[in-house]
Structure prediction request, 588 residues.
Amino acid sequence: MILRLIERTGVLLVSLAVSSVLVFAFMAVLPGDPARVALGVNASEQAVAELRQQFGLDRPLTTQYVDWLGGLLHGDLGTSYVSKAEIGPQVFDRLQVTLLLVLAGMVIALLIAVPAGTLMAARHRKVSGLALSAVSQIGVAVPAFLAGILLIMLFAVKLGWLPANGWTPPAQDPAMFLQQLILPALALGLVQGAVLTRYVRSAVLDVLREDYLRTARAKGLRPFQALWRHGLRNAAVPVVTVLGLQLATLLIGAVVVERVFVIPGLGSLLLDGVSNRDLLLVQDVVMVLVIAVLLVNFLVDLLYVALDPRLRVGSR
Amino acid sequence: MRRLNPSLVAGGVIVGIIVLMALVSFIWTPYDATFVDPSIRLAKPSWEHWFGTDKFGRDVLSQIMVGSRTTLFVGVVAVGVAAVIGVPLGILAAMVRRWPSEFIMRANDLVLAFPALLLAIMFGAVFGASTLTAMIAIGIASVPSFARVIRSGALQVMRTEYVLAARAAGRQPWPIAVRHVLPNVTSLITVQASVSFAIAVLAEAALSFLGFGTPPPTPSWGRMLQESQEFLFSAPRLAIFPGVAIAIAVLGFNLLGDGLRDRFDPKLEDRR
Prediction:
């Protein structure tokens, strides 16, 4: 277990280092220089030179990289070439919004997937099971932003029950926050729930074939009792892995959903950065998202081992 | 006789219809998909315009038809990029020694940290948004899944007796890869291509929706959805038509992928 932890931590650190080089290098190969991009084509040579000097863009790339990485490690993401504002506080503020949205989406996905997937597995040869399978197949095919638009049409336009968009911080007005959170979280959660349902179903189907479940039935437990007491915990192992991978997908999916619901999250910040040609901001947000994805994968890997003792011995 | 596989049939029919629609759009559409006619803007569905018109008076059905070309084009190129890089990598990872193989798979994992959407936004920021950047970004992001699936398939092939025999007979790795491994992983490639196609359709729609995909005036389902957003109250149909088109296309490729998988591996059939 400890060996595994060390190995995975090593892999995480190397991945972080390599991806930071990739992100930096990618933004550095940019045709034209960032100062010129930030100021626009009509800016004078002198203004561009001043900006380059002000932000240290005239230094060698390696120095700039080391500087950027050092800042990242201290939570200092630098100053925007365009707005001249500190990037760090913006990114962390927006990250909180996105994380709240993603977590709410995840909870909804789980609330849908666990019961629906279990039911589908338990009735996989019956009409009700097949019908649920068909519904989940359709759910998988609907992108989150489309789900968002459909939800707005139904609950905001037609029924008028919930606001169509907007965002209020929970501390400012908890009731409004919840109202505005429901639709975007549903848009993310319904689609991820459909994907997850298929994994839950497959995991529960595997468990249903196990000897220990037959033994439990032979002891006189009803099918659902047996599944509840012995099956679900075993089915959790593969589901947790998928859940982790989905968390990464949700994080990126949130970028589009934020646009639909006009939510000031990390995704909106990234898209604003692109349209304002604020390259350092884009570089920082991309890096933060990549770090989040790598961290989630790392945690899932550990959780996977913790849940399934068989994996503690031997490697993959 | 073998039982007809419903997923394969349904997926095949849906994909067939989309391909047909794209092909027909080259020679015929009800109207010119980019023709602007302000006098009939936001017209409701009628005999003249089956799906109505958009805010510029363009015919929605014609746009959906031409948009299917964009969707298929992006999918084909993205899946092509992913397969051309991912398949050789997967086979290579299965055939080389442990450390090089480990290195390939680790690099592969690293690419997973850059989802298609993020890559495409980065490409868009640096090179400007276009269909090309979207296709390449989606393609690169799909490489890891190809490499992973093909590697596991190729590992199984490498353990078969005919490969052992070929090696014992002194055949070089390269001919073994081409003559024995590749033909035996084609079913995996087909399944993965179908699944990746569905993901590419979703990614393209999302990117066009965000303005990082196909630029106007070329019709694209994702951008039609984005343009429909300001009319959710007055003309919700403008969102419904492209939305349904996207969902049906993804459903079709997913079903096709599932169906193909069952066909190539009948043991799995009642699992899905």
In short: Residues 223-261 of chain A form the longest helix (39 residues). The mean pLDDT of chain A is 81.
